[in-house]
Design a protein that fits this description.
Distance between the termini: 17 Å
Helix content: 10-25%
Largest sheet: 2 strands, antiparallel
Number of strands: 4
Shape: extended
Length: 76
């Protein structure tokens, strides 16, 4: 099982107004904590980012109330 982040992709056209890049989503598979390695270097050391309690509360509400009615994973 893996977690992923989904980012929207903007539709782009070339000079002749023909579609060059279709609209849609880009998916990035997120690593587990054990997969993250801190490389020693000037710009490569990862530092933890603080998250406010308000952001945690709002995100928890969003995730806990997210429901998809009549979802069938075989439809994709």
């Amino acid at each position: 099982m893996s977690f992923a982040a989904i980012f929207p992709q903007r539709e782009e056209y070339n000079e002749e107004t023909h579609e060059q890049t279709p609209p849609g989503f880009n998916m990035v598979v997120l690593p587990y904590a054990d997969d993250i390695v801190n490389f020693v270097g000037e710009k490569t050391v990862a530092r933890p980012v603080g998250v406010s309690e308000e952001l945690v509360a709002v995100t928890s509400l969003l995730v806990n109330n997210l429901t998809i009615g009549d979802f069938d994973f075989r439809a994709f």
